[in-house]
Design brief:
This protein has six helices and no strands. The chain is mostly helical and 102 residues long.
C-alpha cells in the first residue's frame, strides 16, 4: 500500500476514534441560511460571467488577423450620390462668437 493511502487510512481511523456524539439539530433558520448561501453563490457566478464575458467568448472566436484578411466588397457611389454636396459640421456657438468679434 502506498504511503499516501496509509496516511489517509490512519487519519480516518483517528478521526473515528475521537468522534463524540453531539446533541444538535438544524432549525429552519439554518436551512434558510444555506439557501441564501446557494442563491448568493449563483448570483456571484452570474456577475463574474457577465464581467468577463468577452474574455470567455474570445477563446472561441477567430483571431483578428483571420477576420481582417478577407477583402471587403467595394461600394460604388451612384451618379446621384456623387452630385450631392458634402455637408460640413456646423461650428459651435463659441466659435461663432469669436468669428463675429474679429
Amino acid at each position: 500500500m502506498p504511503i499516501r493511502s496509509k496516511s489517509l487510512l490512519l487519519t480516518v481511523i483517528v478521526w473515528w476514534l475521537l468522534e463524540t456524539p453531539v446533541d444538535a439539530y438544524l432549525d429552519p433558520g439554518s436551512g434558510s441560511m444555506l439557501l441564501q448561501l446557494l442563491l448568493g453563490g449563483f448570483a456571484a457566478v452570474g456577475v463574474i460571467a457577465k464581467l468577463y464575458w468577452h474574455r470567455l467568448t474570445s477563446v472561441f472566436r477567430r483571431p483578428l488577423a483571420a477576420r481582417n484578411s478577407r477583402p471587403r466588397p467595394m461600394r460604388h457611389r451612384s451618379e446621384k450620390e456623387r452630385s450631392l454636396p458634402v455637408l460640413q459640421p456646423r461650428s459651435s456657438m463659441a466659435e461663432r462668437s469669436v468669428q463675429t468679434d474679429e
